[in-house]
Amino acid sequence: MSAVARLAVAIAVVSVGACQPTSPVTTRPAPPAQQLALLDLVGGWRWLYHVEEQGTARTEDERWRLRSDPDHPSQLVGRYVRTVEVRSLDRTPFQCNERPWYRQRAVYDVTVEQDASQVVIDETAYVTEPSPCDHGFRHVGRYHGQLTGDRMTLQWDQGSQTLWQLDTALASLPEAPWPKTYEPTGAWRWDATSYDDDGNLRDETEWWQITRRTDTRLDATYRRRVTVRSTNGATIECAGKSSWTYDDAYVLDGQKEEEHWHFHELAVEPGDHPCLRATPRRTLDEATAEQLGDFFVLEWRGKRHQILYRPE
């Protein structure tokens, strides 16, 4: 073979070798480091925030639980319970529930996936606790998380927060911490403080007891206590002292009307006191009532608004 022919063969062999892969191409799972980073998130997490502003104290608490997803090995599933409590620092009642504090609670379902050096958390669904202080609507969001030791910083368009890891247990996801259904029967209460026409303080408290007669009928009673007291300790003329009190007792029945109840006052045993001698009679009333969780929102004739709550 001539020198030219030998050179052509050599070039051909080199060319064929250059076109061959150096090792077989096969599919393989994600690198171990990526899998471990995601599995490091399994367990319980918590975020807590407290602030005082505009005469209120607000505490926000989130308790997270993440675990592996048997149906999707490349992601985690999770759920967190978010609780917001707002308290009036001077004990002035909030209009939404007529109490000096209110609470909003919601449960969010989430999925967690790996994205390079970060994780992506998507809220997929939510449920909220019924309350007159909560309209029940939420926006679902997306967060990017960065893990540093036992802390995970979540970032989104409007800000960031840092979760602290509490445990690494592979536990069940939390359920909503409120009942699935609410029963109208049992004890209820109402409190209010206002000024009367003479400038005295008027403290009112009602203790309700509701029992069920049938699926669509309720029996109810309530005792109403009213205390009138002078703001400066001066003697109230009709009472001969700076305060006086009376109790009334009422009997009612309730009838189901679609999603509401309709209460009728049937009878009253009025309290007696020298300051009531001018107006000894009571007028029986009726109200439409809507139960929102542990609250009963009553609308009496004349647009009088009243919200009963479960005693603590």
Describe this entry's structure for a reader.
A hairpin with a 4-residue loop joins strand 15 and strand 16 (305-309). The protein has helices at 3-18, 32-39, and strands spanning 43-53, 56-68, 75-88, 101-115, 118-128, 142-148, 151-156, 159-167, 186-195, 201-212, 217-229, 243-257, 260-269, 286-292, 295-300, 305-309. It is elongated, with a radius of gyration of 33 Å. It contains 2 helices and 16 strands. The protein has 312 residues and is mostly beta strands. It has 2 domains: 32-167; 186-309.
Which SSEs are present, and which pair or pack?
Elements (H helix, E strand, L loop, with lengths): L2 H16 L13 H8 L3 E11 L2 E13 L6 E14 L12 E15 L2 E11 L13 E7 L2 E6 L2 E9 L18 E10 L5 E12 L4 E13 L13 E15 L2 E10 L16 E7 L2 E6 L4 E5 L3
Antiparallel strand pairs: 1-2, 1-8, 2-3, 3-4, 4-5, 5-6, 6-7, 7-8, 9-10, 10-11, 11-12, 12-13, 13-14, 14-15, 15-16
Could you name the key traits of this structure?
53% strand, 2 domains, disordered N terminus, 312 residues
Number of strands: 16
State the major sheet: 8 strands, antiparallel, barrel
SS class: mainly beta
Helix content, binned percent: under 10%
Distance between the termini: 105 Å
Q: Give Rg in angstroms.
A: 33 Å
What string, H for helix and E for strand, traces the elements in order?
A: HHEEEEEEEEEEEEEEEE
Catalogue the unreliable spans: 1-26, 30-36
Shape: elongated
Strand percentage lies at over 45%
The number of distinct helices, counting runs of at least 4 residues, comes to 2
How would you write the strand order of the largest sheet? 1-2-3-4-5-6-7-8
